[in-house]
Each structure stands twice: as C-alpha cells, then as structure tokens.
C-alpha cells in the first residue's frame, strides 16, 4: 500500500452529461443543442517525491491505490470511462463494423498444426466461434481418437478474465499440470489434472508465473513462486503430489531481485534446469530429471555482463552465450566438464553482422535462430561436416523463427514464417533432403494475399544512423504523399519487434493506409550494439529514431504529413509519451495501451513489481546521472503547455507490469496543461491486466475501438473509402 493511501482525498469531477432536456410548447418541438461532454477534472494534491537528484512535486500521486478499492480513485476511473463512452458514442457503429470486419476474417473452427511429443500429437483448436481454445491430443498416430486435455470454454465460465498459461505433460503422459489466471495480473495458479479420469487433483500451487517442470517419477513438480508483494519470481519450490503446498521445500531462492527465474526440462528430457536471468547476466543450475532429490549444480557461475542459456543432447551441453563477444556465439561442453566456462568449445562463431537468438538441438543437426540484416532467419548446421545454410523464403521483409520442435531424434525441422501481409505459415523441412512441406497457414477468410505487398526501407536518423522500417500497403495505394499511415514502435529490452501478420491490419490497408513498423534503437533487430544505443544514457535515440522515421516516410511521400498515426504499448507506450511531448506536430493521432509513462517515480519505488529487474534497462535513478537522463524523457514529467495530437490511452486496472495509475496520472496532467481542443480519451478495463481482455474474439474489440478512434480523426472520405 502506498504512503498516501491513508490520506483523505477529495476529487473534483465534472458530472457526466445527462440526457437531453426538452423545451418548447405545443407549437414548438425543437430541441436545443446538447452541451459538449466535459472530461473529468482530477483534483490537485501536491505530494513530494524525493530522490538524490532532487525533490519533485507530483500533483496526481493520489491516484495510486495499491488495494484498488478506494472509492475516490475508482469513481475517478469510472468517470473517465463514462467520458470515453460519451465521446465515442458517435463511433459505435463504426466500432461494431470494424469488429465484425476483423473477426469475420478469423476461421471460426481454426486449429494449430499438430506437434509430436513422445507418443502423442498435441494441438489447440477453437470450436465454432469460441472465445477460448480447447487443448487436445491424439496418441499412437496423428489420426487416432482425439482426447481433450483442457476445455478452455468450460474452464473460463464464470470468469470476467481467463487465461491458460504454460502447461506440461507428465513423463508417463497421464497427468497435465497447467497454469490459469483469472484476474489478468499474470499471477497463475498451477493445477493438476488426471487425464484418464478427467478429474482435478486437490493440489493447487498459487502465486506463480506459471513455470513448472515434472520429474521422471511423475509425482514431483518443480515450480517458480512469486513474491506476493513485488510479484517478482523469487524462489523455486518442489511439490510432491498429495502433500500440502504450504510445506513445499525451497530448492533455490534468488536473493538478487534484478533477476527473473524460470524452470523447465531440457529438450532431450534428461535434466530439470533453473534459469536465472537479468538484463546483463544469467546463470543455469540443473539436476537429472530422474533424481528429484538431487542438489542443483551450476553450469557456469554468474558474472557481470555474462549471459548464457543452454540445452542438452548426447552427454553434452550446448550453450548460447555472449562470453567475450557482443552478438552471441554457440559453444559446447561435456557433462563431465560443467562448472567452468573455460572448458567450453566454440562451434558457431560470433559475427558482427548477425546475432544468435536461439538454438534448437537435433541428433544430427544444430539449428540457429538469428537476426541478420535486421531480419529474423533460421540457419542449419550439421554436426558432422560443419557447413551451414540459411532456410530460404521468397519474402522481401519477413520474420522466420524456429517452431515447436519437441523431438530430437528426427531430421525434420518445424519453423514458421510471417510478414505484415503474409499470415503465419508453419513448415516442416527435411534437413537431410531439403524437402519442405507446408503444414499450416493461418486461415484468413476473404483475404487475397496477391493484393498486398511488403517492403523494407531504411530511414535516416538525425545522427546519420539508418533505421530499418517494415512497410505494408495495398498494391494500388498511391505513393504520392496522400496515404494515411499507422506507424508502430517499441524499442526496448533488446526485443526484436519483427513483422507479423494481423487480420486487423487488412482493415487499414483496405482503407488506403500504410502500416509501418519502425525497428528503432533499443530493440535487438540489428544486434547488441543496436540495443545498447537505445538504453540507459542513450535512451533518447529510441524516441528520435521513431520521429525521424516518421519524417523520412513523409518526405519520401509514403505517407501524408497530416495523416500519420502512432501506436505503442507497454514500453512502447513510453515511446508514445515521449514522442507526444517531443514532436506533437508530426502526428494526427496517438494511441497507446498500458503505457509506461511515469518512469522516474516508478523506478524510484522498489516496492512496485518489476522495478528492481529494470535497473539495467533504464538505470537506477538513485544515481544522479540516470535520474537526470530519465527525467529528460519521462512522459509524465515532460508534459507541457502545448498543442497535442488526438490521443487515446487505455489500461487495465489489474495490470501488474505497468500499474494503472501511471497512465491515469499522465492523462490527468495532460488534461490540465494541453492547449488544444483535440480529444484526449482514457479507458480503463476494470477486469483486465497487462495483456488486455482475454478471449479470442473479445480481444479484437479493443483493436476496433482504437481503429475507430483513428479513422474518426480523418476527413470522412479518407476514413470511409474502402478499397475492393
């Protein structure tokens, strides 16, 4: 609970608009024009936030309520929702039309490509127009009778929010451990189901991120537990079926709260591994899966700026690491030599022009997921002769990733390819013969891929750096500077924000839009250096790259100067807030979901979930140099008296990653200071968390709302001219 919780707060909220008042007499039935809806006005209560870099006054700190129960806060959020509803009432028909348009492209009974594990083929599928998936398998052969493992629609009944996270099958294939979240806070409860009887066991492991691993005895589970206050992953416990979870022993506790924990079996099923990962270092410890009572052994001790992850096959560990390199390489070490990284032997060298992202091990092949030339690619290396080759595709701008490969004794690689205009396609590639088989293409009803195109351009940033931008548009869209554009960005954590297909993009492309994905610094598309040039003291490059990409695309007549919209969520919301402050004139509208916009105050408070994990990303503001850098771009702290574009902000009350009060405070300050008459809308989903609403179809309502907001800012002809 925050220090401000016990203080009595008074809020000034302008009453929401009532119904129309009818005036007149028997001879007159004219109605006066209704007054325009008025936004809620948040009360100002000065609250000092102290730091070594100085004390700041936060006038809206009172909007923080960790209990999410204080009436004055909830009433304010409800008033914002009421104002949003009034301001968007005239777009309801368009919202509904967009929602139906988008969801009509979804195959109502879609299913994933079956993936083999041990003796069964596993698949998720949707029944006719269902919101939640059914998890099923067929054992013995791919055409055997279907066995339902988890019935998502049935499990979701009675819950406003529902999500199935990770699930794991026991080694004897008779039990399933699965994680469910019914609040949207990414706080999962692990449950165990007997697949023969269909009954749930009484065991329930609460307060977890969902990570779980079975031991070979089929009744011992290792799982990660969250701290109940900070929600950090702080310990790994061992549970024996039928025992009281409150007595589960701790097998590993992470004392350094800048680390995240995970637990899983290795790909060859020989070991159970605990991974500790921070921004700059990592550590793996393991035991044989057949010995659940063994003590965990460290593969290589953690060091500053030393990261690695590992897989196991044929009595050796294969390691992806940045040891003595920047863009990662692949090494291996025999089982008998673990514990000392000096015994590691290089098998794939580091490259300046490529980053090793992931590895997958097969008996005869090593498969590497990499980024080169800013593209996600897959490379194959036989263990014997050492020659490597890229998996080919005919797309100009795409993302190719290693797929679901649970079997090591096979020469068949499963991988996936997608682009902004190509639905995700799953292939099986015989690595020995080179024969490729398409196993599944995401069904998009009524979509004709031939009508659209994608390309990659390189925008020039103000310091001369070339920034890759993925573009999508209809082939008949004019390149004369008249097209509206939605530009999307993220640029944080070294995340590779690769192009992917969305059935919603089609609704924009068919209205003449260009969709642009800017791969700005702070992401990892061009290697570790690309990431490091957009973090900590260099974070401003992320924001200027996005702005400069916008101005480049306008200058190249790819987009109209007065029809550019921007979107980012979470850390991409930090980007949106900074861009709104720095270059509001470049954008017709900005919309953002669950935005991280109160960077300084949040990073000063170590009681907030995830704060300590993030020091290596943003810096610790207790250090003056990081405080001053953060203060220079923090969206909330840099709101000023100026004109802003139209803005739509949304959040989830239960968000545990970016707390609801960050955007609430930001919007309140924007309302008080902006000088324009453009709409500023704030919607709070009172049941959801960081991921938004749950449900396959419900999810698209949020997209339809955002697109309707965007189209509403355009001239009517531009917003409604749907191409055929």
**How many beta-strand segments?**
38
Average pLDDT for all residues:
91
Could you describe the largest sheet, including whether it forms a barrel? 8 strands, mixed
- By secondary-structure content and strand pairing, the structural class works out as alpha+beta
Which assembly state applies to the chains in this document?
single chain
**What separation lies between the terminal Cα atoms?**
55 Å
SSE layout and pairing:
Elements lengths: L46 E3 L6 E3 L12 H17 L4 H12 L11 E3 L2 E6 L8 E6 L7 E5 H5 L6 E7 L5 E7 L6 E7 L5 E9 L3 E3 L5 E7 L6 E8 L9 E4 L6 E6 L5 E7 L4 E7 L8 E2 L9 E6 L2 E6 L7 E6 L10 E4 L5 E8 L3 E8 L2 E8 L6 E2 L8 E4 L9 E7 L6 E6 L5 E6 L10 E9 L5 E9 L10 E4 L16 H5 L4 E5 L9 H5 L7 H16 L8 E6 L1 H12 L6 E5 L5 H6 L10 H4 L5 H10 L12 E7 L8 H13 L6 E6 L12 H15 L3 H5 L4
Parallel strand pairs: 33-34, 33-35, 35-36, 36-37, 37-38
Antiparallel strand pairs: 1-2, 3-4, 4-5, 5-6, 7-8, 8-9, 9-10, 11-12, 12-13, 13-14, 15-16, 16-17, 17-18, 19-20, 20-21, 21-22, 23-24, 24-25, 25-26, 27-28, 28-29, 29-30, 31-32, 32-34
């Amino acid at each position: 609970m925050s220090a401000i919780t016990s203080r009595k707060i008074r809020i000034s909220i302008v009453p929401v608009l009532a119904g129309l008042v009818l005036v007149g007499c028997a001879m007159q039935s004219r109605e006066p024009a209704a007054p325009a809806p008025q936004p809620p006005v948040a009360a100002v209560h000065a609250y000092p936030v102290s730091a070594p870099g100085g004390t700041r006054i936060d006038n809206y700190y009172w909007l923080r309520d960790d209990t999410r129960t204080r009436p004055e806060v909830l009433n304010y959020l409800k008033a914002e929702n009421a104002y949003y509803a009034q301001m968007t009432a005239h777009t309801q028909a368009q919202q509904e039309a967009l929602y139906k348009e988008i969801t009509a492209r979804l195959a109502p009974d879609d299913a994933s490509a079956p993936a083999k594990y041990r003796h069964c083929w596993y698949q998720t599928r949707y029944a006719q127009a269902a919101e939640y998936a059914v998890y099923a398998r067929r054992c013995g052969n791919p055409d055997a009778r279907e066995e339902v493992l988890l019935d998502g629609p049935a499990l979701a009944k009675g819950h406003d929010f529902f999500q199935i996270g990770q699930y794991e099958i026991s080694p004897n294939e008779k039990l399933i451990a699965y994680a469910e979240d019914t609040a949207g806070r990414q706080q999962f409860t692990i449950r165990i189901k007997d697949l023969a009887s269909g009954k749930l066991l009484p065991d329930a492991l609460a307060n977890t991120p969902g990570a779980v691993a079975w031991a070979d005895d089929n009744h011992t589970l290792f799982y990660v537990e969250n701290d109940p206050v900070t929600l950090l992953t702080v310990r790994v416990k061992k549970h024996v079926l039928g025992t009281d979870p409150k007595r589960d022993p701790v097998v590993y506790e992470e004392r350094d709260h800048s680390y995240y924990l995970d637990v899983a079996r290795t790909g060859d099923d020989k070991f159970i591994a605990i991974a500790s990962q921070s921004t700059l270092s990592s550590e793996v410890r393991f035991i044989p899966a057949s010995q659940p009572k063994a003590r965990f052994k460290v593969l290589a001790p953690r060091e500053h700026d030393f990261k690695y992850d590992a897989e196991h096959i044929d009595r050796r560990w294969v390691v992806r690491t940045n040891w003595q390199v920047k863009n990662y390489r692949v090494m291996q070490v025999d089982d008998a030599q673990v514990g000392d990284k000096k015994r590691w032997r290089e098998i794939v060298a580091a490259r300046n022009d490529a980053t090793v992202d992931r590895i997958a091990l097969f008996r005869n092949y090593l498969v590497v997921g990499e980024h080169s030339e800013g593209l996600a690619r897959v490379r194959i290396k036989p263990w014997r002769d050492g020659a490597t080759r890229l998996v080919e595709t005919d797309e100009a701008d795409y993302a190719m990733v290693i797929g679901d490969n649970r079997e090591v004794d096979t020469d068949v690689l499963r991988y996936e390819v997608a682009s902004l205009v190509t639905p995700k396609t799953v292939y099986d590639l015989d690595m020995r013969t080179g024969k490729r088989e398409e196993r599944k293409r995401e069904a998009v009803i009524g979509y004709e891929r031939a009508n659209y195109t994608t390309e990659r351009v390189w925008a020039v940033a103000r310091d001369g750096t070339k920034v890759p931008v993925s573009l999508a548009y209809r082939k008949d869209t004019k390149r004369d500077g008249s097209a509206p554009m939605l530009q999307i960005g993220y640029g944080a954590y070294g995340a590779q924000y690769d192009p992917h297909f969305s059935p919603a993009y089609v609704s924009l492309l068919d209205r003449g839009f260009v969709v642009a994905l800017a791969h700005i610094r702070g992401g990892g598309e061009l290697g570790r250096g690309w990431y490091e040039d957009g973090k900590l003291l260099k974070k401003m490059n992320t924001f200027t790259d996005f702005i400069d990409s916008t101005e480049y695309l306008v200058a190249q007549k790819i987009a109209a100067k007065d029809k550019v919209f921007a979107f980012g969520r979470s850390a991409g919301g930090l980007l949106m807030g900074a861009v709104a402050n720095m270059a509001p004139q470049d954008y017709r509208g900005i919309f953002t979901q669950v935005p991280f916009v109160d960077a300084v105050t949040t990073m000063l408070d170590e009681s907030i979930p995830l704060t300590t994990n993030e020091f290596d990303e943003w810096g610790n503001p207790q250090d003056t140099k990081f405080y001053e850098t953060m203060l220079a771009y923090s969206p909330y702290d840099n709101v000023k008296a100026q004109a802003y574009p139209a803005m739509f902000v949304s959040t989830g009350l239960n968000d545990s990653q970016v707390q609801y009060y960050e955007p609430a405070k930001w919007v309140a300050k924007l309302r008080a200071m902006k000088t324009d008459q453009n709409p500023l809308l704030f919607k709070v989903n009172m049941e959801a968390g960081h991921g938004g609403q749950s449900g396959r179809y419900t999810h698209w309502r949020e997209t339809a709302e955002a697109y309707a907001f965007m189209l509403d800012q355009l001239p009517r002809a531009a917003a409604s001219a749907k191409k055929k």
